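Saturday, quiet lab. Running sequence design on the structure tokens for the scaffold JK sent over.
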């Protein structure tokens, strides 16, 4: 059963291949994403993050989920030498660079708890997969050509690991360099990161994109991570262990 719904300003796809899959389980997962959107969207005036930014609620009133996401954001900021920062140049807090991967990971863990063994979740280029697809094979992920819609430049097999892509080709310039917010990030157009899970891949993909051309070297130094970067000329660069995910052993 494969269903796609627009939530969080993007299409979210849930594909469950277990025979016992029900509409109720699919809807439960989508309801979770809608709840996350209601609390973390900076575009909704009634969301928790909007209320925090307006000063309507103080830290003692933050939800446990908000506290968890903020703690992860601070951890990522330290681990990336400040290249990941949820404080925007205008001073407002925007955790969208980490919420997507965090929410997908939670949704995936819930499906596993509900005895789902074979599934795939994708939201805006961030992916969690588990088990096998409908052909009883490894799930595959296509890396899009940022210059040609519907063209796939590389197919990877995450083998249960997380995948996240950060780029400017779909949403335009929405990631900035916290060290120099006025610098235009146009040297690369996308970077796809494979990590231990989708949350880990997501938080470091965002940081690596903010680093520009140095992002691929940053991922190279991270144990347990691989990456594939495409620059503005269309030239691709990959980390030393990335090719291992382009074939099924």
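Result came back. Writing it out in full:
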């Amino acid at each position: 059963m494969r269903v796609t719904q627009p939530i969080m300003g993007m299409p979210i796809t849930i594909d469950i291949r277990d025979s016992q899959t029900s509409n109720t389980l699919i809807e439960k997962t989508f309801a979770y994403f809608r709840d996350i959107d209601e609390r973390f969207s900076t575009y909704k005036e009634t969301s928790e993050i909007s209320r925090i930014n307006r000063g309507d609620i103080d830290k003692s009133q933050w939800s446990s989920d908000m506290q968890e996401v903020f703690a992860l954001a601070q951890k990522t900021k330290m681990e990336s030498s400040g290249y990941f920062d949820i404080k925007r140049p205008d001073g407002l807090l925007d955790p969208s660079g980490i919420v997507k991967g965090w929410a997908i990971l939670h949704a995936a863990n819930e499906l596993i708890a509900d005895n789902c063994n074979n599934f795939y979740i994708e939201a805006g280029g961030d992916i969690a997969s588990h088990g096998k697809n409908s052909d009883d094979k490894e799930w595959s992920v296509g890396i899009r050509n940022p210059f040609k819609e519907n063209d796939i430049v590389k197919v990877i097999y995450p083998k249960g690991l997380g995948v996240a892509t950060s780029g400017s080709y779909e949403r335009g310039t929405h990631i900035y360099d916290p060290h120099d917010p006025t610098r235009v990030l146009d040297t690369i157009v996308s970077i796809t990161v494979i990590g231990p899970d989708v949350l880990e891949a997501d938080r470091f993909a965002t940081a690596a994109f903010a680093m520009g051309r140095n992002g691929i070297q940053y991922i190279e130094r991270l144990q347990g991570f691989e990456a594939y970067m495409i620059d503005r000329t269309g030239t691709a660069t990959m980390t030393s262990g990335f090719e291992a995910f382009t074939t099924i052993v």
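Notes for JK: The domain at 2-245 is CATH 3.10.520.10 (T-fold). DSSP finds six helices and ten strands in the chain. Ask whether to fix the surface positions before the next round.
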